[in-house]
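Shipment paperwork, digital attachment
Item: protein structure file
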Amino acid sequence: MTIMTAKWTIDEYHRMIEAGILDDRKVELLKGEIVEMSPEGETHAYSSHEASQYLTKLLGNRATVRQAKPITLPNNSEPEPDTAIVQPLGREYRVHHPYPENIFWLIEYSDSSLDKDLDKKSKIYAEVSILEYWVVNLKKLQLVVFRDPSDGEYATKFTLTTGTIQPLAFPDISVSVEEIINA
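Attachment content:
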């Protein structure tokens, strides 16, 4: 016997949210599946907050830095990355979450969810052509950088522990790796 899981669309997911069905759950929609999110530990909360504050100052009005807010993707996914650096569209985000074309890059802070962030989420983001995705490995204090989406995966992946990195969307800006990983 084959077991089939029920897949949900973004519209169905939004209707569940509006009906209050998911009120007491910390979940996100990944490829049509409603997935429980890991609770944030102290290190995760501190690091993602401090890095978001740093990026907000660094980018100024060139981008909006959203913390733990949904993004809407056309592959029936509505994840809530720890940090999304998006176009500063102001009130437009009252009627929709950022779409892939609004996203400069995404950052996830990972401890217990490291495998999901490095594998499943990287493929979800590459599939919709998000140009850059960073995963901060909180256990090893490393920044794993994914770039160049192609055929549902990122063609380029490298790891940093020090120095600076220039985001693809803002090659004139140098981001301190230490400030992102909070070493």
